[in-house]
Write a structure and sequence with these properties.
The complex is a heterodimer of chains A (205) and B (108).
Chain A: H1 3-12, H2 21-33, E1 56-63, E2 70-77, E3 95-100, E4 102-103, H3 104-113, H4 118-129, E5 136-139, E6 149-152, E7 157-160, H5 161-166, E8 170-173, H6 177-191
Antiparallel strand pairs in A: 1-2, 1-8, 2-3, 3-7, 4-6, 5-6
Chain B: H1 3-17, H2 22-37, H3 70-86, H4 93-101, H5 103-106
Classes of the chains: A alpha+beta (205), B mainly alpha (108).
């Protein structure tokens, strides 16, 4: 087996194993549309009660580091699904990592108030909507549950799982398969740099 | 989308990987593999897989399947990863300042 095909075989292990030919074709077509694809959400109630990575939920509490103020917010789960699965036995406190949702229109309004021109604002909005800002994950509106929003990948908070489960909470959305992949890629690019240009070893003599 | 359109799209991809950019494709494939490997637990056995490698030898003498395979999915993930890396931009300083100064109030 060639090196390339060996790499493909290795990567294949991380793709869903249960895709039908139609689902495979749909996934291909949606990924192919990036950055202009629109099917960000999975329109199903199948996992509405589960906490999955990339899910949007109302009911998180964010704490301001400077003031200590608390605020109930909507947020997107950043933790991987397995680490916060409710059916798994817990022998230690678990936190859910989440990023608060920010309405895009609210942000654009603030830019207008700050005196930014329409051209500048449209440029900012366009880059966000096309997922070009590495520290921002864009979320289009989801009818009935979400206005056009975004999260900041450097604004991640922790909420104790048991506390979150005991609160009044509301599921807002579940990412579709292609949107989930794009989220993972952006999260990886933002948090992990294999090429950081730092020599972490002794100089050769 | 019709099969013909899909085949056209695949042909374009196959032609693309015949170019000198194939080295970059392999490099980013490895990058994607490393990225994905951080998020998933390995599952399944390799022997049960039936991935079909589509020929891109450059001779174009072998038929190209119109069926979408996992390899095509991987290529698309690779393309998205490449797109994200190549086209990344930062907010300008003032837009970033407005965002972070108002962050608390903007939480929904």
């Amino acid at each position: 087996m060639s090196n390339e095909s060996d790499i493909f075989e290795q990567i294949k292990l991380y793709l869903p194993k249960y895709l039908t030919p139609t689902q495979t074709e749909d996934l291909y077509e949606e990924l192919k549309k990036f950055p202009d694809f629109t099917t960000y959400y999975w329109d199903s109630d199948e996992f509405r009660e589960q906490l999955l990575q990339g899910d949007g939920w109302r009911g998180f509490v964010v704490i301001d580091f400077g003031t200590g103020d608390r605020k109930s917010v909507s947020g997107m789960i950043v933790s991987n699904s397995c680490d916060i699965a409710m059916e798994n036995a817990r022998y230690y406190p678990v936190n859910i990592l989440f990023a608060p949702l920010i309405k895009l229109e609210g942000y654009l309004d603030r830019l207008r108030e700050a005196g930014r021109t329409n051209t500048q604002i449209e440029s900012v909005a366009g880059n966000i909507r096309k997922q070009r800002c590495t520290n921002i994950f864009y979320l289009p509106g989801c009818p009935g549950s979400l206005q056009e929003s975004m999260i900041l990948l450097d604004d991640i908070h922790a909420h104790p799982l048991q506390d979150f489960l005991g609160r009044e909470r509301l599921s807002l959305f579940t990412l579709s398969q292609p949107a989930f992949y794009i989220f993972l890629l952006k999260l990886s690019i933002h948090l992990c740099r294999f090429r950081e240009d730092v020599r972490r070893f002794s100089q050769a003599v | 989308m019709s099969d013909a359109t899909i085949l056209d799209a695949k042909n374009e991809e196959h032609e693309a990987v015949e170019t000198t950019g194939s080295v970059w494709v392999r490099a980013t494939t490895l990058s994607v593999a490393l990225s994905l490997a951080q998020h998933f637990a390995p599952i399944g056995d390799l022997t049960s897989s039936d991935i079909r490698m589509v020929q891109t030898d450059g001779t174009m003498t072998q038929a190209i399947s119109a069926e979408i395979t996992e390899l095509d999915i991987i290529r698309q993930i690779n393309r998205v990863f490449d797109d994200l890396l190549r086209n990344q931009v930062d907010l300008d300083i003032e837009s970033k300042r407005v965002l972070y100064v108002n962050r608390w109030a903007l939480y929904s």
